[in-house]
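User: Protein arginine methyltransferase NDUFAF7, Friedmanniomyces endolithicus:
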Amino acid sequence: MRQCLTSDLGGYYTATAPSETDQFGARGDFVTSPEISQIFGELIGLWVVAEWIAQGRRSAGVYLMEMGPGRGTLMDDMLRTIRNFPPLAKAIEAVYLVEASRNLRLAQHKLLCGGNPLSENGTGHESTSRYSKDLKIIWTEDIRFVPREASKTPFIIAHEFFDALPIHVFQSVPPAPPPSQKQQQDTIQTPTGPIPSPRRIPKTNEWRELVVSPKPPHRLKTDEPEFELTMAKAATPHSMYLPEISPRYQALKSTDGATIEISPESQAYTLDFAIRIGGSNPAPLTQPEPPRTATSAPLRPVAPARKTQPFPKPRPSGAALIIDYGPPSTIPANSLRGIKAHSRVSPFLSPGTTDVSADVDFLALAEAAVNGSPGVEVHGPVSQGRFLGAMGIRERAGQLVERAKEVGMGGKGGEGLGEVVERVESGWRRLVDLGPQGMGGLYQVMAFVPFRPVEEGEVRRRPVGFGGDVRV
Ligand code: SAH
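Assistant: Predicted structure for Protein arginine methyltransferase NDUFAF7:
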């Protein structure tokens, strides 16, 4: 997935060949919510405003951060909304955009900064907002380049970002049957016949990784993908440790054929979000022993524990909002897919020109966050339909329609009044559609906010959109 999506050599997002169109919209491969309706970004902007109010209206040191901003539409709609709340707009020190694609970075710059110059800095690029020359917009290719300071309040948005991060796939297989000669040795001869020896071979399943392999030439057909998923013949470094990191995976190990998808990179990202909001766990007093395995030398070093500096944050602050496609509580399986021209295709079709994505495992992201920081709590996931409904999507659409009628004019690009009304109406309804294939039910929303122990007689605060209200 990494190679296909973000490789320097012709990745789907990173290919540098000039192109007339990008990946989005009717002429691209898929349409995302901010491209369907401006209300999506406006309500996410409002969510940030509500959290900022709920956390005591910090007057400085706020970072707005977005992972994989696409065309920049969501951030633009958010910034336009936040401008209506001047104390927050003033408190925003910088907007950080984590973006791997050069072409999309240029598109985001054009939308968010207009004609303001784009310059290189030590870790990426920067410019200033078209809304305010005091607001810096900074691009990096990885969240690790975004400064982490305990005094800052980061509001982090990730919409349709995690489904683009690579997954590993594992399947539980029963242990190989013992060779028949051995079977004989494992029986005890008695006058009434052989009885199995009590020394039985332990019957525990093992995880095998499903890996991408070239198809053998005799099965290769014209116009069919050259690659396929096959099961590794033996344990791989990843299959030895990744499925062991959570009780959710361990619980499936004894089920023959159980398939699980794990995205360590996604978990590393949400761990990072959580630490920025709530600080890291205190360092253990003694260093734990590195895990030992019964096997001989690994094929290559297995994910060496990165030495990370402890990051205490005495006053947790900020929030993260994750919106993506995936099951609300189960572990995704068989979800790797290709998308081309709005249709689902094999993920192995024409690598680098097909979008490849996988369902997001929301509970795995939540687990990484709460295990990694003592200062965050997780709310949701709730369906996008419910979240946007609670945020007031219907009311906002009504407002836009009323305004268009009052002005009595159409929108940009020669749109007539009727067309504007139709676009607003069909747009918001599409985002909240709870039908079987509707975006309202297929997309989930999850939030990380600062953890606050609930005192006796107190009710836990819920963020707006997750059952909470704003108290202004
Ligand atoms: N959030 C946008 C775009 C979603 S598409 C929207 O909703 O419209 C995924 C985005 O993530 C693109 O901008 C893509 O270039 C970016 N991206 C994908 N993989 C990435 C990675 N590993 N690191 C940084 N950005 C990545």
